[in-house]
Amino acid sequence: MQELLVISGKGGTGKTSIVAALAALAADKVLADCDVDAADLHLLLRPEVESVNEFYGSNKAVIDAGICTGCGRCLEVCRYEAIKEFRVNPVFCEGCGACKLACPSGAITMEPNLAGYWYISDTPYGPLVHAQLGIAEDNSGKLVTLVRQEARRLAQENNASLIITDGPPGIGCPVISSLAGVTLALVVTEPTVAGRHDLERVLSLASHFKVPVAVCINKYDLAPEKTREIEAYCHDAAITIAGKIPFDADVARALVNAVPLTACSRGAAARAVRALWDSLQVHLERL
């Protein structure tokens, strides 16, 4: 079983649109959305949710009013100002436990906090594992790991040979959790100054974890000079450019209609994504 992860150094490069387009082309696969802070792959795949599961992150402090003496020690030690009038605001609480240790009456306990949900869904393009982290909740890396584990379990049950994962943008904890141990990471970039800068950062991260990478330049024809700079950089770094996708109004129309591009268009961008998929299959066969 192989894992293809699609990531980007920054948001807005078209990563999720490309994942949805690949999902409509690939056979014998399981899909996963590891962008748990802002999951949106499901918007293009029209899933029917089959299983809803709770996700618990770090523990949060809870004060028992019947035991609390109002001594104020918890207020003194809480550096996050999460306690007001001897009640804990769970949004501000970081779960450090300092208040529990300081409380002389034992009125404070650390209790599991419901931080979000994860789902197993059926789509016209295959099974999908996705999740939604609650507002201001932490442990997104832990939830990403859970999504990946469930995607692997589904792939084994269904004898699927491939997992296609929509990864988070950037280079933070959820990206690291998505990246570790995958077969190939496809990095989607755009021909802009920010696109080039963040491409270099995410490639450095992948190199640190020794993950093979390939690059896709989206909307490459909008800034040919910047595209040539990215191509030269990848050439010098011996990194494969698996595809280049032109600007195409069909992409916007596909998004408006909430369908994968390759399921509704045979335009220039859709043809480029098909060529990208052909290139990725060759790349995966060599790994």
UniProtKB/TrEMBL annotation:
<feature type="domain" description="4Fe-4S ferredoxin-type">
    <location>
        <begin position="59"/>
        <end position="83"/>
    </location>
</feature>
<keyword id="KW-0408">Iron</keyword>
<dbReference type="Pfam" id="PF01656">
    <property type="entry name" value="CbiA"/>
</dbReference>
<feature type="domain" description="4Fe-4S ferredoxin-type">
    <location>
        <begin position="84"/>
        <end position="113"/>
    </location>
</feature>
<dbReference type="GO" id="GO:0051536">
    <property type="term" value="F:iron-sulfur cluster binding"/>
</dbReference>
<protein>
    <submittedName>
        <fullName>Ferredoxin</fullName>
    </submittedName>
</protein>
<keyword id="KW-0411">Iron-sulfur</keyword>
<keyword id="KW-0479">Metal-binding</keyword>
<dbReference type="InterPro" id="IPR027417">
    <property type="entry name" value="P-loop_NTPase"/>
</dbReference>
<dbReference type="GO" id="GO:0046872">
    <property type="term" value="F:metal ion binding"/>
</dbReference>
<dbReference type="InterPro" id="IPR002586">
    <property type="entry name" value="CobQ/CobB/MinD/ParA_Nub-bd_dom"/>
</dbReference>
<dbReference type="InterPro" id="IPR017900">
    <property type="entry name" value="4Fe4S_Fe_S_CS"/>
</dbReference>
<dbReference type="Pfam" id="PF00037">
    <property type="entry name" value="Fer4"/>
</dbReference>
<dbReference type="InterPro" id="IPR017896">
    <property type="entry name" value="4Fe4S_Fe-S-bd"/>
</dbReference>
